[in-house]
Amino acid sequence: QSQLGGFQHRVIWHRRWLRLVSPLSSGLCREVSGRCAAAKSVALPRKRCVDREPGMSTLRSNQSIHFRRPLVARGSALASFAVLASVVAPALVFGPWNFDASLLPSGASQPMAKLPVLAAPSRRVIVGALLVSQAPFSHAKPSLASSDDSVWRAQVGPASDASPGATTSPSFASLTEAISSAAKDAFPAGRAAVITLGKGTYRERVVVPSGAKLTIEASEPGSATVTWETKQPYESVMVVEQGARLELRGVRIRHASKSVANNYAVFLKAGDLTLVDCDVSSSTGAGIAAEGGMLRLIGGIVHDCARQGLTLFGPLMGGEPLIAEVHGTLLRDNGNDPGDFDAIRGPFDGVIARNGVGAIFQDVVVEGSGSYGIAVFEDARIECRGGALRKNRKGESNTRYGGELVFLPAVAAEGGASR
Questions:
Q1: In this prediction, what percent of the chain has a pLDDT beyond 70?
Q2: Cα gap 353→357, rounded to integer Å
Q3: Is the pLDDT of residue 184 over 80?
Q4: What residues pair up with 304 in beta bridges, in sequence order?
Q5: N or C: which end of the chain has fewer CB atoms below 10 A?
Q6: Cα–Cα distance measured from residue 200 to residue 173, given in angstroms and rounded to the nearest whole number
Q7: CB proximity list for 23: less than 8 A, separation 6 or greater
Q8: What is the C-alpha separation between 98 and 120, in angstroms, rounded?
Q9: Which residues fall within 8 angstroms of residue 213, CB to CB, at 6 or more apart?
Q10: Rounded distance, CA 157 to CA 110, Å?
Q11: Between 78-87 and 2-21, two packed helices, what is the crossing angle to 10 degrees?
Q12: Are 357 and 379 a contacting pair, CB within 8 Å?
């Protein structure tokens, strides 16, 4: 509902400008009105709103979401609007929306992320809807590591260290072997796979292929370490390919790779990645990096990385914008390396977001960074609730080139606790 409401308000906004610009816009206005009428079964009130932050209006209860942002500078001449209407408006109305009312379920009460209304939804609409709903973070979603008999299970390491019931599952000497087996027996049939790591250190590089639904969990939190130290460039410990889904639980990640770019311990390539209570560190690069897709961090720590603890980028070659949720994670002592003086200079920020990223930080602590705690550039937006930015060398934050960092008050949950 929130996404559709944002769509409707943005369309109405463009329609009003088109009426002022040119008589030729009447046809476009009729088309817009038709599209809005097609979705009237889930349409929401238009004007009732409560301002929460400058530049952002949020609507409560059954209301929609509307972010106010001017299209062009106030001092532009009327001729500029005419050119804009004749060149850009058709693309705005007919191109990027890809609106199909038949795709909406009756009543439209499903979560916003499951409504296929916009092909590339605005990060402001998505982030705003998550905040207004005040719903629990994605860790409330059922884990892939359920007791469903259809789940393919395996263990890596000694059977005695595996989780209860895993002794009947196939055993492998490495994660790579286990994932290769799952790629043959589970993923083609759409089955999820759960791999349990026994105690110990696993020296290997793990690539999760497209189409995978995989959970890697330690038999006991913090008892299993996956490490990859190499002189080869561009080699992360964990790589999640586009179209793959990975959930890491209670695993320690250690990384070192000689590389100027793409030097990450964990690398998400427009897939879906969740880390729950994990411990991540890179002695040469950044801890966790994402380029597009969906990233969730729940608890855990990212620490002592040579570069950023968390790197959030938009998709490299187009596609869905990166949406990130970080809840209760500690990012400590990252970015203190002086860097490669001939290429990328340090020290570095604790967190960096750029290129249209939308992120929510809740109860996140960023401390001891070599530069700023959080840096937001290039039309990215991070909204923070609770948590702290402290003891970062250059200060709390750095925002440039349209980046936004918004601090919101913590929300009191039932029982008086904040969330």
A1: 59
A2: 6
A3: yes
A4: none
A5: C
A6: 12
A7: none
A8: 9
A9: 144, 187, 190, 191, 192, 193, 245
A10: 41
A11: 120
A12: no
